[in-house]
Automatic annotation (TrEMBL):
Lineage: Eukaryota, Viridiplantae, Streptophyta, Embryophyta, Tracheophyta
Pfam families in UniProt: S1 (PF00575)
Region (Disordered): 373-394
Comp. bias regions, Low complexity: 373-386
GO biological process assignments: translation
Gene Ontology molecular functions: mRNA binding; structural constituent of ribosome
Any one annotated GO CC term: chloroplast stroma
Similarity section: Belongs to the bacterial ribosomal protein bS1 family.
Protein name, per record: Small ribosomal subunit protein bS1c
The entry's keywords: Chloroplast, Plastid, Repeat, Ribonucleoprotein, Ribosomal protein, RNA-binding, Transit peptide
PANTHER family registered for this protein in UniProt: 30S RIBOSOMAL PROTEIN S1 (PTHR10724), SMALL RIBOSOMAL SUBUNIT PROTEIN BS1C (PTHR10724:SF7)
Keyword Repressor attached: no
S1 motif domain sequence ranges: 89-159, 177-241, 254-322
Length: 394
């Protein structure tokens, strides 16, 4: 093609006719110049894109909604229907999609951005938001508590919802007058601070059963009963003394309770039975002689014990596992069997106690036939039979 163009470009034009030529004009050869422009592949692509752009621009100018079923009215309506209530205090459902050292970002299916600060993640003081179970993908209900005026980000809270539930639970437990367990987390001159249902509660020293300091009770779990539950004043007052009195009332002679070995002494083991310390004397561990208590029990062991005696005034409780042995020495050889048979053996013990008491009462009434009572062969005190009455009359 290039050689052809060069060949054509070099041809001379034919001379003009005599009619058109001016007199005296000299004849000069004229050159005919012609050529062909060849577009490259990139040039063709650019040209195609320019054409498409021009067509799209023309459509946007003359018919912007042509071929689109979603109108501006539809868009506005969709935004209104998918928007959520962003009023302070309202509840909203969201999904955690990112966590940071300061909190978590929450997708609330709205044009507004939402953030959960770490201090609003739960009732407890935490260092990392993951400690409250907040991880990407978690779907939860949050409360809107504020809005950042700088970027209109909604501030969310889980703590506010949990507080409402915790106060409601405390009111319910107070109404039921039940004994609960609280962990001591601090204290001052007036009493100790315990964690109850995730809330900080105050226990005055006047309501603590034993004479101890706040440091001695720190990190310990103690039985408590509600005294005052006032959410408006943020007052939560409890009593350890009332809880102990309620627990001690359940400690009947011969009853079986679950306890934990707190410490070992040469003369026995101290057992925690629901916040009350009881002594399991070495002589009451087994019918067989126990030379070294540590060979049978260790601090932290959980076991069943039977109440032998309870001095409420002194706060002393005597315990026994010896009375629960199906056969002498089982506490040493097979303590598991002792715990399995504990309730059964305690029932037998209580029956023997009842019979002994009945026989003692019968001895007192032996010289009082006018009482109309007698003792059966099983040791049960009952009405005097007619035969017995006649023989006594004779």
């Amino acid at each position: 093609m290039a050689s052809l163009v060069q060949h054509v470009a070099g041809l001379a034009c034919p001379p003009l006719s005599g009619a058109s030529r001016r007199p005296g004009a000299s004849l000069r050869p004229s050159a005919l110049v012609c050529g062909t422009y060849v577009m490259s592949k990139d040039d063709k692509e650019r040209e195609r894109m320019r054409t498409l752009f021009d067509e799209a621009s023309e459509r946007c100018r003359t018919a912007p909604m042509e071929g689109i079923a979603f109108s501006p009215e539809d868009l506005e309506s969709a935004v209104e229907t998918t928007d959520v209530d962003t009023e302070i205090g309202s509840l909203i459902k969201g999904t955690v999609f990112m966590t940071t050292s300061n909190g978590a970002f929450i997708d609330i299916q709205s044009k507004a951005t939402a953030f959960l600060p770490i201090e609003e993640a739960c009732l407890l003081d935490i260092d990392h938001i993951e400690e409250a179970g907040i991880r990407p993908g978690l779907v939860e209900q949050f409360m809107i508590i504020d809005e950042n005026p700088n970027d209109e980000t909604l501030i969310l809270s889980l703590q506010s919802i949990q507080q409402d539930l915790a106060w409601e639970r405390c009111r319910q437990l107070q109404a039921e007058d039940v004994v609960i367990t609280g962990k001591v987390i601090g204290g001052n001159k007036g009493g100790v601070v315990a964690l109850v249902e995730g809330l900080k509660a105050f226990v005055p020293f006047s309501q603590v059963s034993s004479k101890t300091t706040a440091d001695e009770l720190l990190d310990k779990e103690i039985p408590l009963k509600f005294v005052e539950v006032d959410e408006e004043q943020a007052r939560l007052v409890l009593s350890n003394r009332k809880a102990m009195a309620d627990s001690q009332a359940q400690l009947g002679i011969g009853s079986v309770v679950l306890g934990t070995v707190e410490s070992l002494k040469p003369y026995g083991a101290f057992i925690d039975i629901g916040g009350i310390n009881g002594l399991l004397h070495v002589s009451q561990i087994s019918h067989d002689r126990v030379a070294d208590i540590s060979t049978v029990l260790q601090p932290g062991d959980t076991l069943k014990v039977m109440i032998l005696s309870h001095d409420r005034e002194r706060g002393r409780v005597s315990l026994s596992t010896k009375k629960l042995e199906p056969t002498p020495g089982d506490m040493i050889r097979n303590p598991k069997l002792v715990f399995e048979k504990a309730d059964e053996m305690a029932q037998i013990f209580r029956q023997r106690i009842a019979q002994a008491e009945a026989m003692a009462r019968a001895d007192m009434l032996r010289f009082q036939p006018e009482s109309g009572l007698s003792l059966s062969s099983e040791g049960i005190l009952g009405p005097l039979s007619s035969d017995e009455g006649q023989s006594s009359d004779e």
